[in-house]
């Protein structure tokens, strides 16, 4: 069985196949209940929204609970190891979370939300974590906002803790009960621990000093750039704005850009076609077969949460170079509908704005 895929990008992408190393990672996290790209993006966008507001000194809570502006506040990235721990934390939908001494943990046990979609479920959990905040949960000294140990405010403190750089979340439905958990790569914040440093949002890379090899982005958040185990084990999905591609060019050296281009020049699968790299072909194939395998195993859920029945005789896809050439010809027309007469071949078409996918790898993830 052959595979055909066409990508229609609504506006030009500045760097084609160059992107954040973590952004282009191809696989879903190997966990019991893996989160989708859209779910991860929603969670990261929410977390980094609150963190950027703190960095900019914009009030999240009204007076008298408004917090002062902060410096050295880092943008969160997705981490598969933390998602794996979060998946274990929600197994069984326990009313209370299992203690975790190594990582910060936010946990919500929700009732009568079995018909809720993921975003509303996570938003309900997030609102629970945020609404319990009050100004007497902190001590503000000359240099920092310090946590004073109030248990009900610990969850929001975990969300905005400045030197945290990674998060992983999971959710589970158990009948009429639901559980949501997010884990962070800093230990649970305790009495006397700094939540974040007082100051102004970063304006230059030199303002980001909590972690080595850090850069400052347009939202006043610091970004860790080194490729540590934390990055290799996870994903980073940029929440996106119109300057994102330009920012990538600015913070990425010419040497690194050349290195990334060389990494994506492998073209042995379909050597006649020069418009795709083998890494992207493999990514397309893996994502398609992952979804087909999930359907065969009965792991695909409907909108209301009930799974589709398992299936038999679902064939594993192979890559077909002739179909790639046909798909490229069609995609080059940038039309969502057209005079496609090859009735023997199925066709999927999608249009993705560059703010939602700044690389072809990101675009593939959106449509697969």
From TrEMBL:
Residues 38-191 form the SCP domain. The keyword Ion transport does not apply. InterPro entries: CAP_dom, CAP_sf, CRISP-related. SMART domains: SCP. Keywords: Signal. Residues 1-21 form the signal peptide. This is SCP domain-containing protein. It comes from Cylicocyclus nassatus.
């Amino acid at each position: 069985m052959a595979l055909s895929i066409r990508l229609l990008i609504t506006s030009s992408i500045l760097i084609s196949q160059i992107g954040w190393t973590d952004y282009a990672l191809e696989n879903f996290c190997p966990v019991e209940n893996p989160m989708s790209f859209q779910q991860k993006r929603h969670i990261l966008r929410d977390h980094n929204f609150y963190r950027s507001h703190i960095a900019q000194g914009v009030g999240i809570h009204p007076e008298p609970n408004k917090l002062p502006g902060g410096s050295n506040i880092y943008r969160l990235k997705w981490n598969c190891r933390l998602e794996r721990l979060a998946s274990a934390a929600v197994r069984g939908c326990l009313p209370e979370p299992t203690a975790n001494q190594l990582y910060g943990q936010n946990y919500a046990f929700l009732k009568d939300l079995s018909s809720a979609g993921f975003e509303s479920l996570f938003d309900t959990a997030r609102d629970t974590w945020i609404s319990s905040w009050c100004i007497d949960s902190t001590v503000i000294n000359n240099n920092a906002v310090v946590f004073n140990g109030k248990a009900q405010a610990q969850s929001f403190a975990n969300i905005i803790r400045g030197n945290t750089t990674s998060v992983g979340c999971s959710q589970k439905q158990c009948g009429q009960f639901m559980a949501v958990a997010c884990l962070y790569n800093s230990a649970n914040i305790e009495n006397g621990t700094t939540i974040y440093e007082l100051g102004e949002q970063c304006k230059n890379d030199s303002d980001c000093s909590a972690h080595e090899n850090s850069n400052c982005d347009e939202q006043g958040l610091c970004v860790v750039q080194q490729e540590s185990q934390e990055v290799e084990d996870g994903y980073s999905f940029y929440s996106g704005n119109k300057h994102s591609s330009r920012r990538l060019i600015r913070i990425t050296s010419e040497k690194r850009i050349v290195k990334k281009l060389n990494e994506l020049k492998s073209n042995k699968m379909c050597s006649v076609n020069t418009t795709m790299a083998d890494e992207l072909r493999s990514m397309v194939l893996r994502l398609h077969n992952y979804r087909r395998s999930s359907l065969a195993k009965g792991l695909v859920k409907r909108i209301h949460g009930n799974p589709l029945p398992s299936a038999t005789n679902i064939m594993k896809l192979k890559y077909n170079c002739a179909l790639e050439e046909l798909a490229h010809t069609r995609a080059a027309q940038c039309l969502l509908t057209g005079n496609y007469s090859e009735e023997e071949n199925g066709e999927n078409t999608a249009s993705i704005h560059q703010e939602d996918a700044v690389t072809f790898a990101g675009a593939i993830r959106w449509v697969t």
